[in-house]
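Contributing new records

If you add data, match the layout below exactly. Sequence lines come first and carry their own label; structure lines follow with theirs. Keep one chain per record. Anything else will be rejected by the validation script.
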Amino acid sequence: MEDEIIARAEQVGVRVRMHARAIDGTASFGIGADEPVVTASVFKVPLAVELADQAERGHCDLAEQITVPAGPKVPSPYGLATFRHPVTLSLDALATLMIGISDNVATDLVFAKIGKPAVRALLDRLGLAGTVLEQDCAELLGTIGEDLGYDYTDDERALTELTPEQLRSLRALDPAQTCRSTAAEMTALLGMIWRDEAAGPGACADVRRWLGLQVWPHRLRSGFHTDEVRISGKTGTLPTIRNEVGVVEYAEGSRFAVAVFTEAVDARSQAPERDAFIGFAAARAIEELRSRA
């Protein structure tokens, strides 16, 4: 199976690091599962856990109203960054946007509310030593503009003509200089969320709800061709980077956490075969784990 997945990855022009595990058992499968990877927007999952945990412990209120002013905001191709007028939303609504459509503006408002020290403490408490989240979206995307010498508006199409050397020079694409994790740590986190171990039961339920509202069907979901499977997840995208982590739940009760991180050989933005590869790899791995049960 490993050879099959790697061969498909090479065919579509990506390098894959991935991990899948049974949430209620010990079966697992990985390819480079402990190697550092660029999270891109997958880093929003730990933020959601910390926000929900703070709310459950009474340190913040998900009903609190936050006003997003008009004018320049964090670059994002959709969501609040595209709004031309002020809007007021609850923290819960911001979290829904952060996970559901990967809204960068909503993410940075949530990050500012909970604070970087709290996120670091959460990762320490959960034993996720390989997961480092020291940048919000504005800081992360800002490094791309700084490295290239012009404003970057979170649009992959703007970077399609970059040479491999230029791409390798971007700090945002270097796990040592950007938000990072490992595939194994992300499935560990998802397992803790689904078993109510990452925070209190109410907080974990909130995070599961937000992850269940993600709208994108083109990656993880694409590998599962039945309505009998429930999929909750979070994508991550940067030039050359396509990721998704999530949980696949079957009608008979089995549950699996999966994380697929890919790095492409070029910055082509329209590459549906690379999106579909994530679904293929996840489905193939989970099929194998189910067969062991």
